[in-house]
Amino acid sequence: MSIYEHLVLRMARRWVAGSSMDEALEYAREANLRGMRAIINCLGEHSISRDEAEDSVEEYKRLLDAMHSSNIEGSISLKLTQIGLDVDYYTCMQNLMSIVRHASMYGTLVWIDMESSPYYEQTVSIYLGAVKHYKRIGLAYQAYIKEHSLDIMHILESGGIVRLVKGAYREDASIVYKSRRSVNASFRRLMRILFKYSRGIFAIATHDNTLIDEAIALSKEHKGREFEFQMLKGIRDDLKPILVKQGFKVAEYIPYGINISGYVYRRIRERPTNLLLLARSLL
């Protein structure tokens, strides 16, 4: 094992439940006991064949069955490239609807994680097509993407559910805001849109104290809006119980699986201070 792989595995213990579904379910039970919902994700992306994509589809169906039989309160989250978007648009849509039909038996919400910019338009298109048939589908929307307001309004007007995130992929400055100040300003604009125009539940997915405080202020201004805070496993564990105690809905994003390097890399890019954890792990 290389030094890099060793470091990734050490860091992954903080953010990833483990390699197996059972380990993820155990963390999900613990989240429920602490008053939080669970969002379970099987790590993986960029399936290069129909068979590989179909394997991911079957894994998510087994996960849905296991969550139901274990009385887990929560949802699943997946990437479209994991279920065939790199194969072709039709295969991906077909696979997504197969998962959605399975989820509908239990009334479980299915989240779609947004990926890098080359997949943006297809992801929004597939989502808008799917939400016509099943309303309990949500889409992660990245605040660092420029020229976004019309798209998010279209999603809301279609009855869509949005998870607002900052974004963590390496992108060109022509496509995304680069500075923290600009990203936060964009996040605030989109958050105000969600509180004002969302027809149902939406999610504020950030670990930033200032943005969380602003979301709380907006919730007081727009009383009755149904939303939840979403945070990653292993991050802001100090804040999660405080928000629960204050009466806010909180969900914890719990990934599992063996394809961890891309996920860990994005967590480090998202919050560079996580590099300190790497350094400390070597001591």
Largest sheet: 8 strands, parallel, barrel
Number of helices: 11
**Architecture per CATH nomenclature, i.e. the level-2 architecture:** Alpha-Beta Barrel
Low-confidence stretches: 277-283
Helix content: 40-55%
**CATH fold topology:** TIM Barrel
Distance between the termini: 19 Å
Shape: globular
Order of helices and strands: HHEHEHEHEHEHEHEHEHH
Provide the CATH top-level class.
Alpha Beta
Give the total of beta strands.
Answer: 8
Strand order of the largest sheet: 1-2-3-4-5-6-7-8
SS class? alpha/beta
When the domains are counted, the total is 1
Using only CA atoms, what is the Rg? 18 Å
Amount of beta strand:
15-25%
Mean pLDDT: 90
What does this structure look like?
With 283 residues, the protein is α/β, with parallel strands linked by helices. It has a single domain, classed as Alpha-Beta Barrel (TIM Barrel). It is built from eleven helices and eight strands. The chain has an eight-stranded parallel barrel, surrounded by six helices. Strand 4, helix 6 and strand 5 form a beta-alpha-beta unit. The longest helix is centred in the N-terminal third of the chain and has 20 residues. It is globular.
